[in-house]
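Hello Y.,

Per our agreement to keep a running log of every chain we model this quarter, I'm adding this entry. I've kept the format consistent with earlier entries: sequence first, then predicted structure.
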Amino acid sequence: MTSIKNVHPLSAEALFLILKKDFANDINAKMNSSLSIEYAHVYDIINVSFPEIIEGTVFTITVTENEIALTNNGDDTEYQTNLLGQHLHDFLVEQSS
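Predicted structure for the entry above:
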């Protein structure tokens, strides 16, 4: 699990909307790809999935007033979940700073 300071506080709902709107374009541009990304939001938790390449929820984002916690639920041998996680982490830092 990686913690990110929620400097300019984002609610889980606001972050969910930002992810849906901007994250796919951001990661696809950086990786020169066309990944399909799915999101699910319940209360303060956002699940992120890459259904075309990895089965199930790959990342879980937990949002509190003070921090955003990113958990990698994927198997790195199946696909480069660490690379996907780094791009997601960087995107979250950019949005919460």
